[in-house]
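Q: A reviewer asked whether we had any structural model of the full assembly, not just the individual parts. We don't, so I'm hoping you can provide one. Inputs are below.
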Amino acid sequence: MNYNDFSSLALHADLLKNLSTLGYNEMTPIQAQSLPPILTGRDVIAQGQTGSGKTAAFGLGLLNSLEVKRFYVQSLVLCPTRELADQVAKELRRLARAIHNIKILTLCGGMPFGPQIGSLEHGAHIIVGTPGRIEEHLRKNTLRLDKLSMLVLDEADRMLDMGFQSALDAIIDKMPKARQTLFFSATYPREIQSIAERVMSDPVTIKVESTHDNSSIEEHFFCFEQSLDKDHPRTTALRLLLQHYRPESALVFCNTKRETQEIVNELCRHGFSALALHGDLEQKSRDQILVRFSNKSASILVATDVAARGLDIDSLDAVINYQIARDLEVHTHRIGRTGRAGNKGVACTLYSEKENYKLRKLEDYLNLAISAEPLPEHELLEQATIKPTMATLQIDGGKKQKIRPGDILGALTGKDGIEGKQVGKIHIFDHCAYVAVHQSSVKVALNKLSYGKLKGRSFRARHIRG
Ligand code: AMP
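A: Here is a predicted structure for the entire assembly that you could use as a starting point for your response.
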């Protein structure tokens, strides 16, 4: 028997038989690692991307422990968006084909509430839904989770990014403490760790892909003096690198506050979408800049080391050193910010002929032979710059006005609104909130927010740019 065969697991015979009819002959790595502890009832945190087979990993876990004859909610799967919830429910139904009379119900925001109450009255074994709507059902007593035995958070990192933390807390508060809890997440930021500490018991952690090792970072060195531009040789070299690698999110490091702004001005003048981050910004501006960069409505962040300290941004495609870092340890730290979460990252460093000696020092420090490369072709400067996919809308209401992500998502996706998949990250502060929407949906989204209501009130909304 192969170690990766589903038959090596203690799965019910009907589930096993169905897997072969689905053409699932071998376990994927995330299944092979997570199913054994899941099936023994352990809490599990699994890091894995969409496409890794994670749905079947938790799906088989919850189906295997389900008691069909007991007609109450036994498992809850929380997803960040309606699209994902629909996908998960579809996969669960496929996996459950061999179990008769099983009832799987989706409860998502953006759908009419009334019919959901009707479906709940008919009973369900498994609920798949989005946090805002589930919380609403709990508040209105139309859903009870007091006999729940398994909770799954799918794309947990994304749910936290979208600001669902307090909804999750409220939901978890309404379920028994003695239950099995599974987290599936592409990344493993601090927030996940802290929520796991609160709601899980002795979890097993599984990582399918290494989230960060140096082999996922490609390092390149360029002498900027080759850029042929006499007035702005360094920024021209920077533009060439940006045009060549076309990163969706890039962090550019430089040494001074003044430089951050100068570089940003120069990049914006040439059509890039760049923002400066330095230590002198007021908290509100800093928050706004970080929101715009992390929600992908600005593609370049130019920062000093001090300002970038503690910055927690996943999925940076590139880090560019405008100069070699003064401190060699800082260099390693800077480039370690790319290539996270199993993504391939690029780290580029610009230097001058005069700084050659620094390169040799870095070589010694890293124990690595560094060879400089020619800059990308100059013709690239003629091409269109990469534009961000998202845009940021600011709403003049936040936590203090009791606005939650679900309210914003609901307002955007209701009648004549935009699709859930057009909505990106949602950040809520005390007195304002930011929501990212696809560039193509800005007008409709702004209309929905400006003329619709949130928590029964109108709030001003505007598109942040420049
Ligand atoms: P997911 O990561 O859950 O979105 O799954 C990605 C795709 O892989 C889905 O279409 C599943 O139906 C499929 N899949 C999951 N597990 C297996 C398996 N063990 N063998 C073949 N296909 C699978």
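A: Points you may want to mention in the reply: The first strand starts at residue 44 and ends at 47. Residues 214-382 form a domain with the Rossmann fold fold (CATH 3.40.50.300).
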